[in-house]
Design goal:
CATH class: Alpha Beta
Bound molecules: zinc ion
Number of domains: 1
CATH topology: Sufe protein. Chain: A
Shape: globular
Strand content: 15-25%
Helix content: 40-55%
Number of helices: 4
Oligomer: single chain
Structural class: alpha+beta
């Protein structure tokens, strides 16, 4: 039952990604690539006074990578950079640790199941690695390999 709900969220966000497209006036940007699956993600952020005012992404990839990027942008809009860094760490824990904490992660918790599939972990984390680059090293191109 839970799994069906999770699959529905992933399907919904992969078919109709939120915050999709270029962001005019972005002041932070990075590109990510997952060669294993062929997923690509370009992330655009408008950050002011330490807060993410706008965030959008472009790219193409599998359902997991697209839905992860879509849900990530939903979760991060309006957050501070410090909160974004915290969420980044929690998400990486979620998909790599055996007993991650899922409280307060909201819909992002749907990705807990991918940790059993190492190849899919790269799909699910691509947008987040790209986020890290956009926050710490804008203009960077990151690869999951
Ligand atoms: Zn993928």
């Amino acid at each position: 039952m839970i799994n069906e709900l999770y699959q529905e969220i992933i399907l919904d966000h992969s078919k109709r990604p939120r915050n999709f497209g270029r962001l005019e006036g972005a002041n932070r940007q990075a590109r990510g690539h997952n060669p294993l699956c062929g997923d690509r993600c370009t992330l655009f952020l408008k950050e002011r006074d330490g807060r993410i005012e706008e965030i959008r992404f472009e790219g193409s990839g599998c359902a997991i990578s697209t839905s992860s990027a879509s849900l990530m942008t939903e979760a991060l809009k309006g957050k501070t950079v410090a909160e974004a860094e915290q969420l980044l760490k929690r998400f990486l824990d979620l998909v790599t640790k055996d007993q991650p904490l899922t409280e307060d992660l909201g819909k992002l918790a749907v990705f807990a199941g991918v940790r059993e599939f190492p190849a899919r972990v790269k799909c699910a984390t691509l947008a987040w690695h790209t986020l890290r680059a956009a926050l710490r090293d804008p203009g960077a191109v990151v690869s999951t390999e």
